[in-house]
Design goal:
40% of the residues lie in helices and 18% in strands. The chain is α/β, with parallel strands linked by helices. A hairpin with a 7-residue loop joins strand 8 and strand 9.
């Protein structure tokens, strides 16, 4: 059995009972960074949360997933194997998807041992209402690309989640303030850790507060533009049912489907006969 194990995002006590049980029964650990995983196991042992300390650690990350899985082969998974990322849920802005695809392809039994997630934590902590949220991972480094992504977030009423580093949090807030200073924002630093801190309010207010704060740490941001206009988009079937000339309709359908106008026009004419 392959176990996708969620690890604490800051507080070691957030490891689950199922996670500890799986660790007690396994010897093979696939992990994003062997140093980080060894440190976690050592802490669990030192706090008497885990008795087993006999593990084989094998790195499996975004730069070696394909080659590592080819090397390990299917037989490696005949015994129980744990895969863990450095922190949080595997496969969520972390490696693991190709491992899951490998398991599916070779019919290797696998399951999830869920737990801490920075993404879900910031959604819950934000206080924003809504059934939909978009996760954007880390923003691009280039200023123009960052501005474009943030502008796109403001075009919908969903909760938009993204991460930022110590070195770029102030720049991202500055860009955001230049676009939408009155937009509602929630910013969390070091979720579940000793120096956990929350900021919320308008973008301009939150940025002013953080400018005078200690910015060292990991940042998670939730953004919700309550005043965004909902886009009105017609589906292909709705365009086809419009009472407009076939030539105009063909041009619209061509834009939607990336087909030629002539092909779309001929299809419409045939359908009317």
């Amino acid at each position: 059995m392959l176990y996708l194990l969620a690890t604490p995002i800051g507080n070691i006590a957030d490891i689950s009972i199922r996670g500890l049980e799986a660790l007690e029964s396994c010897t093979e650990i696939l992990c994003e960074d062997t140093r980080t995983s060894k440190k976690l196991i050592s802490l669990l042992n030192s706090r008497n949360l885990l008795k087993n300390n006999h593990f084989n650690f094998t790195s499996l990350h975004s730069h070696n997933e394909d080659s590592r899985l080819d090397f390990l082969g299917v037989d490696f998974f005949k015994n129980d194997v744990i895969f863990m990322s450095d922190a949080g849920m595997p496969c969520i802005s972390d490696p693991g998807a190709k491992l899951v695809q490998f398991a599916q392809k070779h019919k290797i039994p696998y399951t999830i041992i869920p737990g801490a997630s920075s993404v879900l934590s910031v959604v819950a902590l934000s206080g924003f209402e809504g059934s939909e949220f978009h996760f954007h991972a880390f923003l691009p480094h280039k200023l123009s690309e960052k501005k474009q992504i943030l502008s796109q977030m403001l075009e919908n009423t969903h909760i938009n989640i993204f991460f930022e580093s110590t070195h770029r949090i102030l720049e991202s807030l500055e860009v955001l303030e230049s676009i939408a200073p009155e937009c509602a924002i929630f910013v969390a630093k070091e979720i579940t850790k000793m120096h956990e801190k929350f900021y919320f309010g308008k973008v301009c207010e939150v940025r002013a507060e953080i400018l005078n704060a200690n910015i060292n740490g990991e940042w998670a941001i939730a953004l919700k533009n309550q005043n965004a206009k909902k886009s009105q988009v017609l589906s292909l079937s709705e365009v086809e049912s419009l009472s407009i000339p076939p030539k105009i309709k063909a041009k619209i359908i061509a834009k939607i489907t990336n087909k030629s106008i002539e092909e779309c026009y001929n299809t419409l004419i045939k359908g009317e006969k």
